[in-house]
Amino acid sequence: MLPIASRRLGIFLFGFLACSLVATFCLPLASAQLGKPEGLYYKSWAIVIGVENYLLAPKIPGTIEDAKRVAQAFRQLGFDEVVELYDKDASARRLQQTLSDFLPRKVGRYDRLVIYFAGHAGVTQDFDAKELGYLVPWDAQRENVTKSVTFEQLKEFSRRSASKHTLFFLNAAVRGWEVSTVQPLSLEGRFAPEDETERRAVQVLTAGDKGESLSLENGKSLFVQALVNGLSGMADRNKNGWLMASEVGAYIQQQVLEQSNGAQHPLFVQLEGEGDTVLMEGRKAAFTHGAEPQSPAERRQAAKMQYERAFALLQTEKSPEEALERLEKALEYDPTFGDAYVLKSYMRLEVLPNLDDALSTATLAVQYAPKNPDAQYTLGLIHEKRGQYIEAERAMREALVVNPNYVDVYFSLGILYADKIQDQSKSVEVFTRYLELGGSHARARAAVAQSTPAKP
User: Fold this and answer.
1) Distance between CA 215 and CA 62 in Å, rounded?
2) CA-CA distance, 100 to 189, in Å (whole number)?
3) Is the full-model pTM beyond 0.70?
4) E-assigned strands of 262-419?
5) Interacting residues of 396 by C-beta distance below 8 A, sequence separation 6+
6) What would the CATH number be for the domain defined by 6-30+39-291?
7) To the nearest 5 percent, what fractions of the chain are helix, strand and coil?
8) Alpha-carbon span 375 to 354, nearest angstrom
9) Which of 94, 245, 279, 340 gives the lowest tally of CB atoms within 10 Å of its CB?
């Protein structure tokens, strides 16, 4: 168990589990694509759905106008087919037919597919009490899940769709997927655009989280404005000419969060695969090498992206060496990034042991992340492993100053007192507090029980 607070990873872990059974379900017209295309894709598809004048639900003014702006943005990107479905054309029957028949039959395995939806959405629970999101067609009620397009149906659609890259833009505040993979957060390590088209990708970006109100500026959707700007090239933060779905997601998250004053939180997730939808193609050499961040803000953002990717690699138990490299890159971009020092110090203690490096890194973690209790806690564990027990006690006590209810620290401190410092009274004292906070380890229970006089 990482001592680093695992709650940080929660914002990246929503969505649905999409399977990789693709070519088996490909119908004749789609499977007619033989060999690789000369460019990145054989054909690019955009399905733009906007429901403004609901038959049985409240009207959403401006939805169709916004959807048409998005459709135009796809045309400017060179998409071959832009299918627009508004109001009556977005009925439950039409949407089901589009997902279950039209797109699986038309879209090929070297195509890209982007689906934009704007309208009412909701979240319910399935039989296992898990959240299940749904999109409301033109002729459905907001609370009528049976006539809506559920995320389970989108999951089934992703199985049948042959496209290598499928990207959902949902102009709604909704969640309700389960994911099994982590989104790629940067272009680092990608060697050519061909690598990306060979890798399966299903990605989603929502305008906000469940229950949030979607913000407007001068009557216009903040999400749509950010999306159109991003697709025009503004989301290409490293200015290498390549516009990727992950870049658009990061750009929109930042823009909408700032413009809404923190009231709206777009969610971007890699639902399946390790690829990344290419929305704008640049020069191959630029893609390979990328452009280093220049301004302090760009370097901080790049450092954060490297840190999050390193954290994801550790959580999924993949390549600790790469995780360490990414942390070092993050600290190169931002030498004051306290949380990166904390995570690196833990790695050098437990994952790729190097006690000297661990100690120097943990010292910097305490300096730059003084409000993170894991900085002092990890420093204490390092001192303990080095045989410096008084220093270990001092660091762990400092961690409890930052967080007086940190259960794991009380347990580690109890072990330190009992086994290393040989102070049984202090050991019992911290073990008692550990149990009071909900800890249940047998070692702590036994120590406290032995110190308690037997009743007559």
Assistant:
1) 13
2) 36
3) no
4) 267-272, 278-280
5) 376, 377, 380, 409, 412, 413, 416
6) 3.40.50.1460
7) 50, 15, 35
8) 17
9) 94
Contact between residue 73 and residue 232 where contact means Cβ atoms under 8 Å apart: yes
Residues 321-363 have pLDDT tens digits of: 988 998 999 999 999 999 999 999 999 999 999 999 999 999 9
Token couple for 261? 């004053």
How many Cβ atoms sit within 10 Å of the Cβ of residue 400?
Answer: 18
Which run of H or of E encompasses 27? Answer: none
Pairing of strands 121-125, 131-135: antiparallel
What pLDDT digit, counting tens, does each position of 46-89 carry? 999 999 999 999 999 999 999 999 999 999 999 999 999 999 99
Q: Which residues pair with 118 in a beta bridge?
A: 50, 171
Q: CA-CA distances (angstroms) from residue 70 to 32, 47, 118?
A: 30, 10, 11
First vs last Cα of the chain: how many Å apart? 42
Whether 136 and 142 have beta carbons less than 8 Å apart is answered as yes
The SS3 of residue 112 is strand
Residues belonging to the chain: 456
How many whole angstroms separate alpha carbon 322 and alpha carbon 310? 7
* Backbone CA torsion sign across 263, 239, 38, 198: negative
How far is Cα 270 from Cα 129, in angstroms, rounded to an integer?
23
Amino acid at 312: A
Per domain, the residue ranges of the chain are 6-30+39-291, 293-378
Q: 220: part of which helix (H) or strand (E)?
A: strand 220-221
